[in-house]
Specification:
By secondary structure, the chain is an alpha+beta fold. The protein contains six helices and eight strands, in the order ααβββαβββαββαα.
Amino acid sequence: MTQTNTNNRLEKVISDLAMKEKELDTFMAGAKVVLSQKGFETSARAIFDYCREVTGATSGYVALLSDDGAENEVLFLEAGGLPCSVNPELPMPIRGLRAEAYLTNRAVYDNDFMNSEWIKFMPGGHVELKNVMFAPLVIEGKTVGIMGLANKAGDFNDNDAKMAGGFGELAAIALENSRNLDKRETAEQEQARLIAELRDALAQVKKLSGLLPICSHCKKIRDDKGYWNRIDCYIQEHSEAVLSHGICDDCAREHYGQYQD
């Protein structure tokens, strides 16, 4: 082996190591985004940008599977400076190469997309796609979203697919964290509502509970401020009861006996 060949091999090894270091640093930066627990769209955008950087893609998007599982719902689209006149409101069905990522739960790519069988699924006005790669967002064995990458200066390769798959996993974790946080917030709000209702109910129960000072002669009740109140006024003020007045038999005989037969 000549010295030139040896030097070339060493340079390649050094270059490969530098690339691996860059990939690792970028992936770690993506992991920090997940740990920051920001909103999913913010986290997904940051992870997508890191993935573009490490794979060399210049355009792409992140989308989530619709509730009915029929299409993608795009969170954001990066055209990479190329013209794109596609209506963002148009549906994005799960078909073509994108469907392969959904079905297999792994990253797939095509380096001659404009001449592939998949081109027939592109709507008019779409950004020109020299090459494309799709990385799935997988939660509990099911692809629930997709990261699309396109227009790398060279060709996508298996290492790019491996890296994109890793970033797809980070995005899936960020999505799951976001959903769990939403569930926790909803549960906390429901808990707060129930506690408030219980406190109100307890307050109602406590209104006429405990020891009430009552005059043994006139039957007035002393309140917590030391004032004596008629019993009917006290009950109406401290309960939901509505009192109606009448005369009992004993009082009728005592006070109105002369009117009775």
